[in-house]
Amino acid sequence: MTFPLDSTHDPDLRSWVEGADDHSDFPIQNLPLGMFSPEDRSPRAAMAIGDYVLDLVAAADAGLIGGDAARIVRETGEQLNLLLAAGAPVRVELRQQVSRLLAVGSEHEAAARACLFAHTDVTMHLPAQIGDYTDFYVGVHHATNIGKLFRPDNPLLPNYKHVPIGYHGRASSIRPSGAPLKRPVGQQKGEEGPVFGPSKRLDYELEMGVWISQGNALGDPIDIASASEHIAGLSLFNDWSARDIQAWEYQPLGPFLSKSFLSTVSPWIVTAEALAPFRIAQPARPEGDPAPLPYLIDETDQASGAFAITLEVYLSSAKMRNQGLTDLKLSSGPASNMYWTVAQMVTHHTVNGCNLLPGDLLGTGTISAPDRSGYGSLMELSSGGKEPIDLPGGETRTFLEDGDRISLRGTLSAPGFRSIGFGACVGDVTPAREY
Amino acid sequence: MTFPLDSTHDPDLRSWVEGADDHSDFPIQNLPLGMFSPEDRSPRAAMAIGDYVLDLVAAADAGLIGGDAARIVRETGEQLNLLLAAGAPVRVELRQQVSRLLAVGSEHEAAARACLFAHTDVTMHLPAQIGDYTDFYVGVHHATNIGKLFRPDNPLLPNYKHVPIGYHGRASSIRPSGAPLKRPVGQQKGEEGPVFGPSKRLDYELEMGVWISQGNALGDPIDIASASEHIAGLSLFNDWSARDIQAWEYQPLGPFLSKSFLSTVSPWIVTAEALAPFRIAQPARPEGDPAPLPYLIDETDQASGAFAITLEVYLSSAKMRNQGLTDLKLSSGPASNMYWTVAQMVTHHTVNGCNLLPGDLLGTGTISAPDRSGYGSLMELSSGGKEPIDLPGGETRTFLEDGDRISLRGTLSAPGFRSIGFGACVGDVTPAREY
After folding, report:
1. Which residue of A has its CA nearest to B162?
2. Where are chain A's structural domains?
3. Paired residues of B152 in beta bridges
4. Is the CATH number 3.30.420.40 carried by domain B7-124?
5. Which keywords fit this entry according to its UniProt record (chains A, B) (predicted)?
6. Each residue of B86-108: pLDDT tens digit?
7. What class does CATH assign to A7-125?
8. pLDDT in tens, B159-204
């Protein structure tokens, strides 16, 4: 498939919404989809513009958007699943109408202004009801770094370069940015048998989230040439992990309680349409690596299946915030450090006949750069807890302490286009329960 | 908690519904919950009685059942989740009313008769919308048998006797009994790198399914003393598995496409109330095994947290059915071959703060007996494919062939009580797609 550009991508397009043109994440070229609640009201569909939220239901009711887009926005209720299921044609129709509505020169500025809410006045929700959540492991440098901790001479297992490795995750405990992280309690390996208590090796994982639009019927795989049509957009995703619980529990069936206590997603879906200018070629495989099996190969996907995204992670401790110190940037690196494209993830997921549903979420797995400046977890940054990191103000960290705040950021940039971003993906660590 | 018996459990209770008294699975002492569709109508809540289905919505509308039970039945829509969320009090109220309605001597036999549909005339659905599905691995003999194939001297990993091992499964591909199994296609290990094609080592797994009633809030675990209150009931569960896909993909993050192509559940929830007479003590751990950590131990659960269920598996090939041959019984054994109770599964699942939701499904993992007569998978029965099984009519099997039908059966028996069962959990293997 192709990823058409239109007037909504024009870098010279400006919005009449105050501050939108200066907003690093949500200028008028972005228009991500989400679900919000104005005070005391039920959740409804929205697009972000600058520091504001456009109430799409109100805009539809006021006749400011029309056609199938308006009908589906009104029908979609408290989750975006119905809108996601409608696929690209309806998203494009909605994007083009909202772009005209919010652009300088709109005839309906006054009416549209009545549909705006300041972001600070609303509650953001998960954009969709997530039926199933799957986490992949496509960050090849992360897989290598983690593998080295266990198998220095042979970090990647024999299947890694053939299989987009993934596993089922817990959908019920995914929360939007801002949800507190209660330190999990559980079994860990002790010197003489297991011990029980709060995790002492609590970590974050820098990931991207992939939202599914149209699904597929059970038994009917999605081929690689059409996989992109099933992707509604991307978010930032923090797959918090308790490394001590994980080390003890994960054999032979994989991570379970070490992950299922919380995952944090940025609440705005940056749509496939907004992503179009930032598509880049999937990086060539290193010399000597095997070619993927044919079912995972598509020329267009290889040419444009990766994204020009810079991913960053910031940490602040409670003490740092009390002292007014700036967040520490833990890492910065490109999202293209993925061994497989998101389209390959979708196709592999369904090759056995497994059905995806609108609103399903796929995690990429931790995305790390080859060098330390872009490591996507504390497990890597602290070399498995052996090398503490210095924080501003004199503290050190191997793993997360109560009061720590992790913030993910992602910025999409391409020559000749307006940069856009994902908005916040933040979580604060709070103390474990009494146990 | 305790599991009270009442007049609904009276073994002498008889129903006016023809044949119900002779029905091995659904006499009036059972009254399992499910969702059915009469021809051309939308799904609705039901109870099974003999070869009939009682339309609970019609019974409520006719005033044959009342109170909270009737109100919630009417509100529950196309899935039982709302009824499950209401917990034991509403289930008990419903059970007692339906028991009186269907018992010999009921004043409302004529009116109730209008709410009955022959099982052969209706379509059964999944009883609930399954938010998340988790599969455990508590069948200790299965874990030992499988472990022996890889590690003859050390079949169980060090965590097994401390941790109720589990992993997240795929919810979207769970289907009720009768759904066809299209043979999955995928990557398998070849002599020189991976090969791609239909699975050649397709297997079933004999499991029980555990339905969650009330859930818990994120961050608030369910303690072992109250875990049983969160269990709505049990079904039979077949966790079909592609052993060749599994062997190649499962390291390091666990089973994924080897399981997610289909799981089959019996569509009737045999409720906690119906199960009450069949509770037995959890079998004592073998001499020398470690005691569970305190968070997993409750006196009542140890005294009555297992169930007197005989589980059986039957196979018929297309050729056997064509020749009119009887299904081959592959195995028979007790469900008490579980190293952990279902209450321990629930408590462990939530100990890290993970939230369960009404309608979530937990699989027990394959339940095998210590000896061959009760092995719960072909992987065990054929010693990893090395020892073919003889079928009536001259065929042999290591793994499943196209046209094979697997039927699970489960029967609950206890002295002084009427035996009950789960109904059908059946699936036919159909050919792989073109690839």
Report:
1. A194
2. 7-125, 133-430
3. none
4. no
5. Calcium, Hydrolase, Magnesium, Metal-binding, Phenylalanine catabolism, Tyrosine catabolism
6. 999 999 999 999 999 999 999 99
7. mainly beta
8. 999 999 999 999 999 999 999 999 999 999 999 899 999 999 999 9
